[in-house]
Specification:
globular, mainly alpha, 321 residues, 3 domains, 16 helices
């Protein structure tokens, strides 16, 4: 790593610490300055990147792919000029931008274009973004399945809130996970030596784990599918069958079944029946079979003396974290 890339952010951090001590500014303002100092971006560049991210989110919401691509090029020029000036690698500068764009100037989480596209049911725009960055978000270089936006929501929470194309977006994410982890999953299955476990079982467990991630309110994607969607119960059926963990409580202490029960009659009551039926054999529903695979992988990685490849280690970390 270039020494300038290390020393400059440290110097800025020390400078800002002295500045805040002298002027006695608020803790919130201090945290913002520390964030900018850590990222290495000047305040001017940091604000420019945030503004460009906001602009791309607006285009993603309306499905304006042409404007989105143009805005992305402008954003990448900003990133590139900073990278050259600081002598950083692509990974270094993108990871610093990712940290910067985790929150706005008030410390609140901000959205990313792919999350906005999912929430607005902009299927073609979501696919366009995936194609542009091959499974990365437009502005942070993070895995699209891990990136979080407003309210700590992932792409799955946002897709569940969409009024159209929800199920299709989930199917696409499922296929992307299958492609992304196919090769390391094959290697892992071979090392496990259990003929009952297939590659599809490993990738299916990863998808189930993604569906069961909680946002800041403690909700999984299924909870939004129950409360916010106007569509039929088929989408709920899909999320339940693919392994949403039905035993998880949100911050109000409610499980998916409780939420479906509280929402009354009509389509909601049918969603209740789907969830209730899935819980006949286990409180977690179909997630239980995925949990068994995850636990088996955990036991294997603790005991094995085999040297696993970096890609398999990443897969195991995704599966067991």
């Amino acid at each position: 790593m270039n020494k300038r890339a290390i020393i400059f952010p440290i110097f800025l951090g020390m400078l800002f610490a002295a500045y805040t001590a002298i002027l006695g500014i608020s803790r919130q303002e201090q945290l913002l300055l520390e964030e900018i100092a850590f990222s290495g971006f000047s305040e001017v560049v940091a604000n420019r990147l945030r503004a460009q991210n906001d602009q791309m989110c607006r285009y993603a919401a309306t499905g304006d792919k042409s404007a989105l691509e143009s805005a992305l090029k402008t954003y990448e020029k900003t990133i590139h000029s900073f990278k050259v000036d600081r002598g950083m690698t692509d990974d270094e500068v993108w990871s610093r931008a990712a940290r910067l764009l985790e929150s706005d100037q008030d410390g609140k989480r901000v959205d990313k274009p792919i999350l906005v596209a999912a929430r607005n049911g902009q299927l073609k725009t979501m696919l366009f973004i995936v194609k542009l960055h091959k499974g990365k978000t437009l502005t942070t270089n993070e895995d699209i399945f891990k990136v979080r936006g407003v309210g700590g929501r992932t792409i799955f929470h946002n897709a569940a809130s969409a009024q159209q194309n929800s199920k299709t977006m989930f199917r696409i994410c499922n296929r992307l996970i299958g492609k992304k982890y196919k090769v390391p999953a094959e290697e892992l299955v071979k090392n496990l030596g259990d003929k009952k476990i297939k590659v599809e079982d490993i990738t299916g467990a990863i998808f189930a784990k993604c569906l069961s991630e909680k946002d800041s309110a403690g909700n999984i994607a299924l909870n939004y599918e129950i409360t916010e969607r106007k569509g039929n119960e088929g989408d709920v059926q899909y999320l339940v069958e693919k392994g949403s963990n039905l035993s998880l409580k949100n911050n109000d202490g409610l499980k998916p079944l409780d939420i479906a029960r509280a929402k009354g009659t009509g389509i909601i009551s049918k969603k209740y029946e789907i969830i209730e039926k899935a819980q006949q054999d286990s409180p977690a529903g179909y997630y239980e079979k995925h949990r068994k695979i995850i636990n088996k992988v955990k036991r294997f990685t603790k005991k094995t003396k085999k040297t696993l490849s970096p890609n398999v280690k990443k897969l195991v970390a995704t599966l067991t974290d």
